[in-house]
Design brief:
With 75 residues, the chain is an all-alpha fold. It has 2 helices and no strands.
């Protein structure tokens, strides 16, 4: 019951704020000719527009492990 009353009250408050905000806005007409997308600017730092290739994983080095260490690691 409390949630219903809270939701209704919140809806009324938001609705009243929206109506008052719209009433405060000047009534102007928009001309679509005045709204234009700015031109894209080339990057000044000289970076390429394509992504570089993925990094490669270095080849593994063979390691010589002492026999005592191997025995300690066995479960």
């Amino acid at each position: 019951m409390f949630e219903f009353v809270y939701g209704s009250l919140l809806e009324v408050i938001v609705s009243n704020q929206a109506v008052s905000a719209l009433a405060d806005m000047p009534d102007t007409e928009w001309d679509s000719g005045t709204c234009k997308t700015p031109p894209s600017v080339p990057q000044p730092n000289g970076l390429a527009e394509t992504c570089p290739g993925a990094p490669t994983k270095p080849t593994g080095k063979s390691r010589i492990i002492k026999l005592g260490v191997c025995r300690k690691l066995e479960f």
